[in-house]
């Protein structure tokens, strides 16, 4: 049973407010993107507010480039925010104000211990194999005992007995003995607020009702709650989401490939809705359903269906899912994405026309773009090795016959071209493939392409015949 000094987090009755609080020290990596997604979905599902806070207090490690990348990544994923981002570094005065209020109320105290003293204590603790933490030496001491002008830090006076219990929305009930929580620093000797203080003050001032974040922050919740209680604030609901592991089971790291979400776009050709869908399924589920649109995700997402065990990131599965989303995506949009990859030669209108036959064959935008390359190839076409093999003497001779038959065909439609080619195959007593293969080679320079009659129609009569004739030579 919990004792009287226990502190419980309480639910809130007002509207839901969530925040995503990245530290801008690098890319928006997958774990961060998923945390952002869960916060955003939870707010949207409950008709609440999704907020963004840039935790840029570590001036040495925070960069503008990282801030830009994070904002760009969130925007690309389609996560929008209801207010301008809060920059933690700009709120130091407010953080200090709370530390001084805690000092005033006796919930914090000045600690005059020198770094050398503290190091000596740590060395003793280390030698005695005790947990290394501040021993509370100034907790009950009269600050007047410190010589005039001695530098000091402000430490939080955390409860020493009982335990703190958190009803975590993902982890369930988690308890920590209050004796485990040290009197940590709120204000450094130079007056600058610590990260732990800043987070709590900002969460409160932003009105956050739910703190959804990686479970590497679960311990921090137990350290943050004493500030909340001392200030008499409402505790948020905590939801600590398990981390993402690589397909090999190890914690996700650079070793597992692309690091920032933009790398999934640029290097793997992933669509944002596919990554959105994939991240959603990493740790959250709705029966066996694999594919979700944004609207479905908003309608269905809730924190109670987030699992407790770590999820595994699998690039193959992501690309598979990406293939599904490519097939669902709007042709004009895909045409533009491919045109952006292809550069000057690309004809967006033609790409859009071709998209229905191109997209079933691609798992990512790069494949889609590769599959479209034949549309803009210049004569004489460059041949892959396999395509060149199909254009042996026999193949080239057949192209002559094909060219003749197609030139006689005035109706340049899939149906008519198919009928003509079939008739020719019958006349020559050949399987249709024996004609289609050299045609494909001549028309696309490859051995894989959409259906050959689709290709003929997309290229048009003139270009198709020119490509066939360029490879056709009479049988000697
Ligand atoms: N800035 C922290 C991080 O990027 C998150 C802090 C929090 O969510 O409380 O890991």
- Please identify, by name, the CATH architecture of the largest domain: 3-Layer(aba) Sandwich
The average pLDDT score comes to 93
| CATH fold group of the largest domain | Rossmann fold
Roughly how many Å is the radius of gyration?
32 Å
Q: Beta-strand level of the residues, as a percent range?
A: 5-15%
Q: Enumerate the distinct ligands.
A: glutamic acid
- What summary fits the major beta sheet? 3 strands, mixed
Distance N to C terminus? 97 Å
Number of domains: 3
Helix percentage range: 40-55%
Tell me the number of helical segments per DSSP (H or I, 4 or more residues long): 18
Segments where pLDDT lies below 50 for 5+ residues?
1-13
CATH homologous superfamily label of the largest domain = HUPs
Text of the CATH class of the largest domain: Alpha Beta
Structure commentary:
The chain is mainly α and 476 residues long. It folds into 3 domains: 17-241, Rossmann fold, CATH 3.40.50.620; 331-376, no CATH class; 385-472, Arc Repressor Mutant, subunit A. It has 18 helices and 13 strands. The strands form 5 sheets. It has a 3-stranded mixed sheet with strand order 1-7-8, covered by helices on one side. Strands 2-3-4 form a 3-stranded parallel sheet. The chain has a 3-stranded antiparallel sheet with strand order 5-6-9. The structure holds glutamic acid. Glutamic acid is lined by residues 21-23, 55, 199, 213, 217.
Provide a short characterization of the protein structure.
With 476 residues, the protein is mainly alpha-helical. The chain has helices at residues 30-45, 64-77, 92-105, 115-127, 195-205, 218-231, 261-266, 272-281, 294-300, 315-328, 331-342, 348-358, 365-372, 385-390, 393-407, 414-428, 432-444, 452-471, and strands at 7-8, 17-20, 49-54, 86-87, 108-111, 153-156, 163-168, 172-177, 185-187, 210-214, 237-241, 244-246, 311-313. The site of glutamic acid has 7 residues, from loops.
């Amino acid at each position: 049973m919990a004792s009287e000094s226990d502190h419980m987090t309480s639910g809130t009755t007002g509207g839901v407010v969530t925040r995503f609080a990245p530290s801008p020290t690098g890319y928006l990596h997958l774990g961060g993107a998923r945390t952002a997604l869960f916060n955003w979905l939870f707010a949207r599902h409950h008709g609440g507010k999704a907020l963004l806070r840039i935790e840029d207090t570590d001036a040495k490690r925070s960069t503008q480039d990282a801030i830009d990348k994070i904002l760009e990544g969130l925007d690309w994923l389609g996560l929008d925010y209801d207010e301008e981002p809060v920059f933690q570094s700009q709120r130091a005065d407010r953080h200090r104000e709370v530390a001084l209020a805690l000092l005033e109320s006796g919930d914090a105290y000045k600690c005059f211990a020198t770094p050398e003293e503290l190091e000596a204590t740590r060395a003793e603790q280390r030698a005695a194999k005790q947990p290394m933490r501040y021993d509370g030496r100034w907790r009950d001491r009269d600050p007047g005992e410190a010589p005039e002008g001695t530098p000091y830090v402000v430490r939080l006076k955390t409860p020493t007995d009982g335990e703190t219990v958190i009803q975590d929305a993902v982890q369930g009930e988690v308890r920590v003995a209050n004796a485990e929580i040290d009197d940590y620093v709120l204000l450094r000797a130079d007056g600058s607020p610590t990260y732990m203080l800043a987070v709590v003050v900002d969460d409160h001032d932003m009105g956050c009702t739910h703190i959804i974040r990686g479970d590497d922050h679960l311990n921090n919740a137990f350290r943050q709650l004493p500030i909340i209680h001392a200030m008499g604030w409402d505790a948020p609901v905590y939801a600590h989401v398990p981390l993402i592991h690589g397909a090999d089971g190890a914690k996700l790291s650079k070793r597992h490939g692309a690091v920032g979400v933009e790398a999934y776009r640029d290097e793997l050709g992933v669509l944002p809705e596919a990554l959105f869908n994939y991240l959603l399924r990493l740790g959250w589920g709705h029966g066996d359903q694999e594919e979700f649109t944004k609207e479905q995700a908003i309608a269905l997402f809730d924190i109670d269906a987030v699992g407790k065990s770590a999820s595994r990131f699998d690039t193959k599965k992501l690309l598979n899912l990406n293939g599904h989303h490519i097939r669902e995506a709007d042709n004009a949009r895909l045409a533009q994405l491919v045109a952006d990859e292809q550069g000057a030669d690309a004809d967006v209108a033609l790409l859009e026309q071709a998209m229905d036959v191109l997209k079933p064959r691609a798992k990512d935008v790069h494949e889609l773009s590769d599959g479209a390359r034949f549309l803009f190839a210049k004569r004489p076409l460059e041949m892959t090795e396999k395509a060149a093999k199909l254009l042996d003497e026999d193949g080239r001779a057949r192209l002559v016959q094909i060219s003749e038959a197609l030139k006689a065909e005035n109706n340049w439609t899939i149906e008519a071209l198919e009928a003509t080619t079939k008739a020719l195959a019958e006349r020559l007593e050949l399987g249709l493939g024996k004609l289609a293969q050299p045609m494909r080679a001549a028309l696309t320079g490859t051995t894989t392409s959409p259906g050959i009659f689709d290709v003929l129609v997309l290229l048009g009569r003139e270009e198709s015949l020119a490509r066939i004739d360029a490879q056709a030579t009479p049988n000697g």
